[in-house]
Amino acid sequence: MRTVGIIAEYNPLHTGHEYHLQKAKETARADYAVVVLSPDYVQRGEPALFDKYTRAQMALLAGADLVLELPVCYAAGSAEYFAEGAATLLDCLHTVDALCFGAESDDADTFLAAASILLEEPDAFSQTLGAYLRQGATYPAARAEALATVCQEKHGSRDMRGFIASPNNILGTEYCKTLLKRNSPIRPLPVGRLGNGYNSFTLDGSYCSATALRFALSDGQITETLLSYIPQDCRKLFTEACRTPLVLEDFLPLLLQKLLSERSFSHILDISPELSDRICALRFSCIGKTYREIISLLGAKQITEARIRRALLHLILGIHSDTVESFRNDCTVYYAKILGFRKAAAPLLHEIKQKSSVPLISKNSHAERTLSDLGRSMWDLDLYASHLYRGIRSCKYKAAFKSEYEISPLISYTKESSM
User: Fold this and answer.
1) What is the 3-state secondary structure of 170-232?
2) What is the value of pTM for the model shown?
3) How does pLDDT run across 208-228, given as a tens digit for each residue?
């Protein structure tokens, strides 16, 4: 039995993702594909357009065999945290042979070379990083330049600056760093990205970006052109989900409540003492502004907008820096929560149950009995984040609310139909 792992957000799932699922199985010669999926929040520091169960169901319809939930403390983190949580979860299953990810490059050796530098942090890297920070660069930009500089010195024939400039390549490098750090037997398997770029807003060509889909949906219209980028088997589910999407502005009242109720914010993940002081100084100026206007207001030369989005989401969800560091210094992940699986993947589930170093959770009510104190803390964060998302959606659309304890994993009996 061979299994390939995929780390995804599917926000929303489109034909490019379906291609990647098929290509991953083909390239890895895998019998099964395990997807680690972001929960109701994504790495951009925003709520997912559709809830995690809807996106998991679309993944199953597109060819995934098992969908597991990435803990929220990593899902909305930096590329380093996101990759560490997701790749660790796959490694803990002890059944995954390869990690397949979409990138601008399909050269695994380049990813591993860059990852080894990030892991070892040689003096040349640290010195170059410090120099760029002193020049006023943001930390991500300084880190990328330091990495490109050191990689170029070691591997002069490669265009490392072009390589590091891609968000997908950065994420792939972080996956490889985690695999190296854990001495994991999982081999990285980058697949060249097809179609428009990661941040493209254009619906054209054979494949589009998820960014383009979200942008196209912002006016509330579902066109034939838009639907052509959704896998055929997922279109009905996609159309239904488009009736109840959530966007960043839906969380504005919660953000204002947090901004006005806290005296300091430096205990929140991604909020430095300097950013905390800036928030304290400007929080009353945030009143009357949209969520996105608040992000712009809090912006500073050395802080990216993505960092601010993540910081504000962590504030809303109550994700503390010391809590996440406790997780990372201990087991990193404590469980593998099932969102859905194909009935035909029963042999895979059996093997995971036999080999995994973390419990495979199919019933939420059973989780607390199997987890350590830190594991329960991670679990509680996941439950709170999910209930908050579902609660906001229920209020916005006057829809019935279901708690996590009332929801069972999705079971897909064929690729074409699930229940």
Assistant:
1) HHHHHHHHHHHHCCCCCEEEEEECCCCCCCCCCCCCCCCCHHHHHHHHCCCCCCHHHHCCCCH
2) 0.93
3) 888 888 988 887 778 888 899
